Amino acid sequence: MKESSKSKESKTEKKLPAGAEIYRRLALQLPDAVEAAHMGAPDFRIHGRIFATLAYGAKGLGTLMLTPEQQEGFLADAPEYFTAAAGAWGRKGSTLVRLDAPENVLADALKTAYRNVTAKSRKDVRH
User: Fold this and answer.
1) Tally of CB atoms within 10 A around 119
2) Which residue stretches of 16-102 are H helix?
3) Of 18, 85, 95, 108, which is the most buried if we count CB atoms within 10 A?
4) How far is CA 38 from the centre of its chain?
């Protein structure tokens, strides 16, 4: 069978809901942010460090790398949009956000995760 000349998106990409494109756009608007992939899922990085992913994008969820304290704040402020990831990752701050959350909620959460990674990068440079 001949391959279609249309976009050769991965199966994961085709399953992502519309909110994933907003999440992607907001993540990539952050300075020096790039999209890569981790275990076949889109992720967003700054200086090689992941600050957000679409690992659960097909389920309508984005993942954010927050601190446990930040996670607690987001869950308290908007429990309808945020939940802790399962297991040890969740206890360390990994947080799931619904991709249908308002754009300003997604933007704020992504900026918080981004700042965590840029702060770690600055510490690494100093040591």
Assistant:
1) 10
2) 18-28, 68-77, 87-91
3) 95
4) 12
The answer as to CATH 3.60.40.10 being correct for domain 20-100+116-126 is: no
Query: What are the sequence ranges of the domains in the chain?
Result: 20-100+116-126
Of 28, 60, 54, nearest to 41 by C-alpha is 54
Q: Which residues contact 87 (CB under 8 A, 6 or more apart)?
A: none
Which residues neighbour 20 within 8 Å (Cβ) at sequence distance 6 or greater? 54, 57, 62, 99
Q: Which of 96, 92, 70 is nearest to 82 (CA)?
A: 96
Enter the pTM of the model: 0.84
What distance in Å separates the CA atoms of residue 49 and residue 86, rounded to the nearest whole number? 21
